[in-house]
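ARCHIVE CARD
CATEGORY: sequence design from structure
SOURCE FIELD: tokenized fold
FIELD CONTENT:
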């Protein structure tokens, strides 16, 4: 995962590093999308795999119509660019339903699980795979 602050770094050097990681099979996620200084043109040049919509948008999702529209547009735009979309900070079923209805690929947040240590995460995954 990279944060939008990556756009303030030495761009060509960062892009070379990301290409090396990608060749090794690592997927590149842009974290906290919508809160920093990224531009769509620069994001496109990095050729990331997935955008993670910042919790700030998800918190206001059911309160502010403009936030709903922007979130839906981010999902649509990301898909058109060939990216998957993860929504961070999902805490309520109504948020999840809106995100699913608008094509969000994955969600993270307390609705799914509290933060877990490695062993707890493995147990959770094992329990879910048995169902």
């Amino acid at each position: 995962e990279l944060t939008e602050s990556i756009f303030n770094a030495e761009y060509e050097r960062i892009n070379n590093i990301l290409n090396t990681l990608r060749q090794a099979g690592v997927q590149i996620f842009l974290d906290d999308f919508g809160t920093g200084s990224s531009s769509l043109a620069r994001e496109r040049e990095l050729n990331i795999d997935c955008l993670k919509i910042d919790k700030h948008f998800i918190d206001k999702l059911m309160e502010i119509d403009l936030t709903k529209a922007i979130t839906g547009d981010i999902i649509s735009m990301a898909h058109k660019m060939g990216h998957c979309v993860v929504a961070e900070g999902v805490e309520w079923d109504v948020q999840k339903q809106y995100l699913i209805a608008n094509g969000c690929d994955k969600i993270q947040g307390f609705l799914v699980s509290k933060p877990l240590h490695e062993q707890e995460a493995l147990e959770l995954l094992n329990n879910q795979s048995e169902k």
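CARD ANNOTATION: The chain has one domain: 2-130. The first helix runs from residue 11 to 23.
SHELF: design records, drawer C
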